[in-house]
Design brief:
single chain, alpha+beta, Pdz3 Domain, five-stranded mixed barrel, four-stranded mixed β-sheet, 12 strands, 49% helix, protease, metalloprotease, Peptidase_M50, Pept_M50_Zn
């Protein structure tokens, strides 16, 4: 499946789940939903229909979505009178408005928990990790190729001696140059994840190989390229078991918390960079996420499912920040209402939110430009134009 389709599907799930939170909270509190939309309304809708007083729309700019509530932009007139305790958002109390605004973040957290839960329920619950020397490439007609060694094989022992790193392995193999040596190889199904490579059922075998004393230039004694990869040992069990289900949920909560901490740490780094006048590092916009989606999707469904969980955590944390135009910014105005004992003037809130939206769009454009420059797209395009 093309990367752009997978990217669009992932984005759709994240945005729709978030907006579904606002939608369901409003419905539960009997607040009228005027529009439920995917995409940002800077142009006419590509598609729309109305059902039970709610318009459902899709807009061309798909990097977002929204739920438009009755009375969200100010008091509503009903029969010539200002609405009070009716079907509009404006007349509701602070707690109900906070529930509606915060429901999107809650749904993104629940999506992350569910995604991690499914992942660990199928792949297994992580129980530990270990670095292993892994074969990345095997040269043709090399001793390793003739011995049947394949990419992604893990080298555990050489003549019964445990191999703990690539440098040790290279030294041991060179010392056996010209002599047949027995190597313990491990292979089996694996699932690449952000924390490491999750191991499925594995097989071990002992392979005899004769390292070369004088290998060709650019090749080692065995003719392999190796690397230290982190491997996650997983514990599989039946989800019908209460103990197993609890362990899966516990690990899902733990992983969600870990990624929340990483996102907050990354945001602190971004803020520090901006204060120092530097370009933020380690941050990706839509272009960078698009590229990452392509890499992860190539590894299979479960790595992609983990990416959905991680992105959902990112979206939840980012949206709760007290930045105007985000959910956190809207909640900030409600908190100010608590402390000031009065409502912030609507005109002030709208103006601040407009500034916030302009800031976010500018930031997204700058981060996307940084992604493009990092990937070398502009330089490649310039080379094509000038013909050099």
């Amino acid at each position: 499946m093309p990367t752009w389709i997978i990217f669009l599907l992932v984005l759709s799930v994240l945005v729709l789940v978030h907006e579904l939170g606002h939608f369901l909270a409003a419905i539960w509190l009997k607040i009228r939903v005027e529009e439920f939309a995917f995409g940002l309304p800077f142009t006419k809708a590509l598609f729309k229909f109305k059902w039970k007083n709610t318009q459902y729309s899709i807009y061309p700019l798909l990097f977002g979505g929204f739920v438009r509530l009755l009375g969200e932009e100010g008091p509503v007139e009903f029969d010539g009178k200002t609405a009070s305790n009716n079907s509009d958002y404006w007349s509701r109390g602070k707690k109900q408005r906070m529930m509606v605004v915060g429901a999107g973040v809650v749904m993104n957290v629940l999506l992350a928990l569910a995604s991690f839960g499914i992942l660990y329920g199928v792949v297994g619950v992580p129980s530990g990790s270990r670095s292993k020397v892994t074969v990345v490439q095997v040269a043709a007609d090399s001793p390793a190729a003739l011995a049947g060694i394949r990419p992604l094989d893990r080298i555990l022992k050489v003549e019964g001696k445990d191999i703990l790193g690539t440098e040790q392995f290279s030294e041991v193999v060179r010392s056996w140059g010209g002599v047949k040596v027995n190597m313990t190889i491990e292979r089996g199904e694996t699932t690449p994840l952000f924390e490491g490579i999750a191991e499925g059922p594995i097989e071990r075998e002992v392979t005899a190989v004769v390292p070369r004393k004088n290998p060709p230039e650019g090749q080692g004694a065995l003719g392999v390229t190796i690397a230290d990869y982190p491997y996650i040992q997983v514990k599989t069990c039946s989800m019908l078991s209460p103990t197993c289900s609890f362990e899966i949920m516990r690990q899902g909560v733990k992983s969600t918390g870990v990624w929340m901490g990483r996102v907050l740490s990354g945001l602190r780094g971004i803020g520090k960079s901006l204060v120092q006048g530097k370009a933020p590092e380690g941050v990706a916009g839509p272009v960078g996420i698009y590229q990452l989606t392509g890499f992860v999707a190539a590894e299979g469904f479960f790595p992609l499912l983990e990416l959905v969980a991680v992105l959902s955590v990112n979206l939840a944390v980012f949206n709760v920040l007290p930045i105007p135009a985000l959910d956190g910014g809207r909640m900030l105005f409600i908190w100010l209402e608590y402390f000031l004992k009065k409502r912030i003037p609507l005109a002030v809130e709208q103006k601040v939110n407009s500034w916030g939206m302009a800031f976010l769009l500018t930031l997204m454009a700058l981060i996307s430009l940084q992604d493009v420059l990092r990937m070398g797209w502009l330089s490649g395009l310039w080379t094509k134009i000038v013909g050099k």
